[in-house]
Specification:
Strand order of the largest sheet: 1-2-9-10-11-12-19-16-15-14
Largest sheet: 10 strands, antiparallel
Helix content: 25-40%
Strand content: 25-35%
Number of helices: 16
Number of strands: 28
Distance between the termini: 35 Å
Shape: globular
CATH superfamily of one domain: Glycoside hydrolase, family 65, N-terminal domain
Oligomer: single chain
Radius of gyration: 26 Å
Structural class: alpha+beta
CATH architecture of one domain: Distorted Sandwich
CATH class of one domain: Mainly Beta
CATH topology of one domain: Beta-galactosidase, Chain A, domain 5
Length: about 675
């Protein structure tokens, strides 16, 4: 344990400064660096620790095959967010600057970098993934010279080598007296499934964009078709504040018939919309998002950690998209950008409480793909609908064939239906339940009836599955799979009654008789052959939270004490979150807080605290872990429950490390709950 504790202390010392306002995280120059993504639910822009450099741009729900014989993978976009700046002919780099600082303002989703270049200029820039113009990014730059200097700035569209046949151009479009300079690259994705069009241009805030004689002269340089550049030069006097922006838009045939032209329109919109108006709309949309917030008094670091988790869930999603959230959101291509149970079980519940528009997008993503789920059930010899373990834009199974999870991890189908009923419980949207909710829940219930096998004693088994604990493949009667199937069937019965549809007798028969196995001492047994092995993540304990199937205190405590020590260090963070929620609901604030911190603290990566999937991994940002830690706060300490009566509060509890907990914007009525 000692080396781990030493490593943890080092990590904590490297994490960025906790600002007292609870909204900003900042850092100077560090040796270990993991950036924080600026995202708007459509694109994610990941900054680096080098001046004017961004690591990547990720395009949500835009996929091509990773290889000719591989599965789908989310696209790494063309990078339009890199600039080069030269001062008196010298390129600005990390080696010739001082006072380097980066800051994330979560309230406005603004990522600002500032530094001093020698004795010549103070420079700053802020990256936005515009919430209002969702396929665009905006880099807002300020230069304050401390002596006379000559500035050269180059904006770039860098196309990854995996793209095919790029065409890079520069054109000046004109309508009457309005001229619109557009740098552009259009190319095919790696195996040709999509055409991607990216456009970009400079904006000079103090200059009327319609009067070309006021603008610096632009120079186009096409290094290669994969490296397209546009630059300008400007002489600046000492103390003369010079502000400009670089904006880019990226569109694909996933969303547009003509992505090339549409990307131009977005850039022109940003070019000709005054900065205060454009950014003001972005700020207002983030202000609306933060109506659903979590306020922790008495512990600034916990406040920042929790708010950073919520920031990422908001940044990775949109209420107007009918899209879901991948485990790593829009921060990377990890897990191929596919959609797992991570959304329904881990990210969805906090969003359901705090933003029903986003929650509706997440459930609609599944109902839009119900047809493919029904096809999959037929193809495997079952009835109803069978959802893929990994989903992409098509709704077909997207898991690599070598991974047994794709063929056998079936609890995902129940997880989807459970999320659907919880959405109705909170929103009471009967029209949605009739049109989208119940049709899917009915197919899921029919699936579980066909999937269950009747035993000689009248009980039912679900055989040959991979459960939540993926260390145990191809087992019978996995606790969570069986428990989630029971819950999905019970919820389908309630939904049928709500919409006035007949209830098949088999739904209740199977739900009432699916086996939940026990050891001799009454501890819940994870599966039919489980005998105390290590577990990858909580499985049995999910029967207590969120399923409420195991709910007598004696068994709940037995299951907690038996399975918590068996959780592997290399397992994902969510297991600790489950244990923490349960301890909080049992009234044990000390154990709950210990496990709350353990669910994410070892996973934080410097300098901003981005979460990796596990203490031993390095693949941030793990949005699933964010969902888990937020559930501890909302459903554990906050005492919130999703019930047939909607959201109710029962027995909230506060760790001694906090003075108070306030949860705002809860449910359709946007209620506030405070725990002191």
């Amino acid at each position: 344990m000692k080396p781990l504790l030493i490593a943890l202390l080092f990590l904590l010392s490297a994490i960025g400064t906790a600002q007292e306002d609870g909204w900003t995280i900042s850092s100077g120059k560090v040796d270990q660096y993991t950036g924080i993504v600026a995202a708007n639910g459509r694109i994610g822009i990941l900054p680096e620790d080098k001046p004017f450099q961004t690591k990547s741009i990720i395009l949500n729900n835009v996929y091509d095959k990773e290889s000719p014989l591989g599965v789908s993978k989310i696209l790494l976009g063309m990078n339009f967010a890199n600039l080069d700046m030269e001062v008196d002919g010298e390129l600005v780099t990390k080696d010739n600057i001082s006072d380097f600082r980066q800051e994330l303002d979560m309230k406005t989703a603004a990522f600002t970098t500032s530094f001093t270049f020698k004795d010549k200029a103070n420079i700053s820039y802020t990256i936005y993934a515009l919430r209002n113009v969702q396929y665009t990014g905006y880099v807002d730059v300020k230069v304050i010279p401390t002596k006379l200097l000559k500035l050269k700035v180059t904006g770039k569209i860098s196309t990854p080598e995996t793209y095919q046949d790029p065409i890079s151009t520069f054109r000046i479009l004109q309508d009457l007296e309005t001229t619109m300079p557009i740098l552009q690259t259009v190319a095919k994705s790696r195996l040709g499934r999509h055409t991607v069009g990216t456009s970009a241009t400079f904006i000079w805030h103090a200059i009327n964009s319609t009067r070309e004689n006021q603008r610096p002269e632009l120079t186009h340089e096409k290094v290669t078709e994969y490296d397209n550049r546009l630059s300008f030069e400007q002489e600046l006097k000492k103390g003369e504040v010079f502000e400009f922006a670089w904006t880019g838009a990226e569109c694909s045939t996933q969303d547009f018939e003509d992505p090339q032209t549409e990307s131009e329109r977005f850039v022109i919109f940003n070019l000709l919309t005054p900065r205060n108006d454009l950014l003001g709309q972005h700020f207002k949309l983030w202000e609306d998002l933060w109506e659903g917030d979590i306020i922790i008094e008495g512990n600034v670091q916990d406040q920042l950690d929790v708010r950073l988790a919520l920031y990422h869930l908001y940044a990775f999603s949109r209420g107007d998209s009918n899209l879901s959230i991948a485990p790593m959101g829009l921060s990377s291509q990890n897990y191929n950008g596919h959609i797992f149970w991570d959304t329904e079980l881990w990210m969805f519940p906090p969003l359901l409480l705090l933003n029903q528009d986003i929650a509706r997008s997440l459930v609609n993503y599944r109902s839009d793909r119900l047809g493919k789920a029904k096809e999959k059930a037929i193809n495997f010899g079952y009835k109803g609908a069978m959802f893929p373990w990994e989903s992409d834009d098509t709704g077909e199974e997207a898991t690599p064939a070598w991974a047994l999870t794709g063929t056998f991890e079936h609890h995902i189908t129940a997880d989807v239906a459970i999320a659907f009923w919880n959405y109705y419980r909170v929103t009471q949207n009967l029209e949605w339940l009739k049109e989208r909710g119940y049709p899917l829940m009915k197919e899921v219930a029919d699936y579980w009836v066909s999937r269950a096998t009747k035993n000689n004693d009248g009980s039912y088994s679900i055989k040959n599955v991979v459960g939540a604990n993926e260390f145990a493949p191809n087992v019978d009667d996995n606790a969570f799979t069986n428990g989630s199937a029971i819950t999905a069937l019970q919820f389908a019965i309630l939904a049928a009654a709500e919409v006035g549809e007949p209830i098949p007798l088999m739904w209740n028969d199977v739900a009432s008789n699916i086996r939940i196995l026990k050891f001799e001492d009454g501890t819940t047994r994870e599966h039919a052959t489980y005998d105390g092995e290590r577990i990858k993540q909580a499985d049995v304990n999910l029967l207590t939270y969120p399923l409420n199937i195991v709910n007598d205190q004696e068994t709940v405590l037995k299951d907690l004490k038996y399975y918590e020590p068996k959780l592997a260090e290399e397992g994902p963070a969510m297991g600790q979150s489950v244990f923490a929620v349960i301890y909080a609901r049992l009234g044990d604030a000390k154990e709950a807080y210990r496990l709350f911190r353990r669910s994410y603290e070892p996973n934080k990566r410097p300098p901003f605290g981005a979460l990796a999937e596990a203490a031993t991994s390095d693949n941030p940002y793990f949005a699933t872990g964010a969902g888990g830690m937020l559930q501890v706060v909302l459903f554990g300490f906050g005492g919130l429950h999703i019930t047939e009566e909607g959201i109710v509060q029962k027995n909230p509890i506060l760790p001694k490390e906090w003075k108070s907990l306030t949860i705002t914007g809860v449910g359709p009525e946007k209620k506030t709950y405070k725990v002191e």
